[in-house]
Design brief:
single chain; mainly alpha; 6 helices; membrane; transmembrane; DUF308_memb; DUF308 domain-containing protein; Acid_resist_chaperone_HdeD
């Protein structure tokens, strides 16, 4: 086997920034998911607002990654750009009207998880130096499955049921994100 040097998908200075952002959103996702499952009636408005904020932040990181990454194909770069814009847009809708946007938010989150999962699955080769390839692919598969479950169960269910399911899936996806965090790059 030929030993090839792997080129990082992000400049070394950006990896730690992306890692910090992913860590923050994943921890926020776990906390929010648990709160939603424990107090579904009490947390509806606050959870909708926090979901909106989390989507905006995650969308901004996708946008940043689409511009800052090196060595990606035009198609992958555009996929990240479109996904980032969609996540920022959906987050803004949720922030404006968190109590009324639950069903729509559940659908958008499901679609976002599916697109993000496919991006992780097919873009895994770009992240080889950031996290183990197999872990990024497993995380992508879990994200796609969580998105499909969200789309199947969210349209006809009640708000508490959507919230509980969303909370559970958010915890799962956030834990996968925590496990697949990029390796910390020493700064010089």
């Amino acid at each position: 086997m030929i030993n090839q040097e792997v080129r990082p998908a992000l400049p070394p200075e950006a990896v730690n920034a992306v890692r910090s952002g992913m860590l923050f959103t994943a921890v926020l996702g776990v906390v929010l998911g648990v709160l939603i499952m424990v107090w579904p009636g009490v947390t509806a408005f606050v959870a909708g607002l926090l979901f909106g904020i989390a989507l905006v932040v995650a969308g901004l990181f996708r946008l940043f990654f689409s511009f800052a990454s090196v060595g990606l194909t035009f198609g992958l770069r555009m996929l990240m750009l479109v996904l980032g814009i969609l996540m920022v847009f959906c987050g803004a809708i949720a922030i404006i009207s968190p109590a009324d946007a639950w069903w729509m938010l559940a659908i958008f989150i499901g679609i976002g998880w599916i697109f993000g999962g496919f991006q992780d699955i097919f873009g895994a080769r770009a992240d080889v130096s950031i996290a183990p390839r197999w872990l990024v692919i497993v995380g992508g598969v879990i994200s796609v499955l969580a998105g499909i479950v969200m789309l199947i169960f969210s349209p006809g269910t009640t708000v508490p049921a959507i919230m509980w399911l969303l909370g559970l899936l958010l915890v799962v996806v956030s834990i996968v994100t925590l496990v697949s965090l990029p390796k910390k790059v020493p700064t010089s």
